[in-house]
Every structure is written in C-alpha cells, then in structure tokens.
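Continuing the series of single-chain predictions for the mutant panel. This is the parent chain; the variants come on the following pages.
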Amino acid sequence: MRSLIFLVITLISGAIAGTVLALINLGVVEPYIDKAIAIETQNKISSGENVNLSELIDYRMWQKGGAVAAGAIYGLALSALFGIVFAYSQNYLPGSNYKKKAILLAGILWFVLYFMVAIKYPANPPAVGDPETIYYREGLYVAYICISGFSALVLAIAWKKLKTTKKNIIIPLLYALIMTAAYIALPPNPDKISISMDLIQTFRVLTAVTIGIFWGILGILFGLMWDKYLRSEPQWRAQIR
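Parent structure:
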C-alpha cells in the first residue's frame, strides 16, 4: 500500500510540475523560439532556399498545441527517476522533514542533469543548428548527461561507504575532476550560431530558470504530499534523520 501511494504521489507531482513547466514555456520561452525561427527562415529565404511558410506555421501551431501534454509526459518521466533516487537516498539526505529532503534532491538533480550539462552544451532554440548534425549533437548531449548522472550516482554510493570525515570534500572534488575531464574530452557543438547572441543568451537563461522551477515544484509537491501522508503513520517519522 505504501509503495503504491509513493508511486502515485511521485507521478502526480511530476505531471503537475511538467504541466506548469509547459505553461510557463508557452508564455516565456516560446516567443524567443518564434524569433529564432523567424530569423532562420528569413536567412534561408535570403539565400534563395524555398521555404513553405504555411507548413512551418501549421507545424508550430501543432507543436504549441501539444506542449501541455508533452510537458506532463516529460514530468512523469523525470518524476519516475526522482522517485527511484529518493527511495534509495531518503535516509542519507539532510533535512528535518521529507519536504526539505525532496527539495534538496530536486536541486541536486537539476544541477547534475541540467546545469552541469548546460555548461558544455547550452540550450539553443530549435531553429539554431544544421539539421544534418542533429543526431550527432543529441548524441554528445546524451553522453554528457550520462557521464554527469552516472558519476554522481557512483560517487554518492562511495560517499555512503566512506568512513572518513573528509568525504564531503573528496567526493565533490572527484565529481569536479570527472566533469572537467569530460568537458575537455568531448568535442564542442559543431554548429556555428548565425543569429543574435543576445537572443540566444536570453533563451538559455530562461530555459535554465524554467527547468529549475520544474524541479523546485516537483520537490515541493512530492515532499508536501509525502509528509502529509506520513503524518497518518507516526512510526515512519522515525526514519527522518
């Protein structure tokens, strides 16, 4: 029963957080995507390339129309990951209640799965980049996420096993060294940016903020609902350390 409720709370939190993310993106981020697409389209027209404007407009309308559903699915996927990590790490996370633990874990996952990756491969609007290199660029991005995520996971397990009081210094240092090596070893984004860097930088900042909001909402909702459920089972409160 507890496992089922844990799963329901996790998925509900993710679906809500993902939906909120989609709604925020529609109002805050999408206008910059539209601007980037308009600039890229104008560049193609100026170079003599044939562009089907009607098809492009229809595609963008379809894309925006499905944004909320896509956001909910995105939230469900990441909340599943969040729930698994929380289930195994809850007793090692600092905090006097599960809300604080969940918010801390959400912040860690934002840092490991988004911020660290964005340092090497920052977000760009969909219109930026050569379509011929999209799979190559996605491969680099996924590889860097995997390096960051698995490194953090392995080091977290090592932190649990280490008895030395210096582990709070050793573990973050090892993670920094691994990510520095990965930053140097992996090639840069192969595509040159041909539109305004002000637009690109604004898009990147807004994307980082909205993804941070997503993780924050996920952590807060999950922690609040899980704490509320556990109030009905006082014996479980003893697990909080």
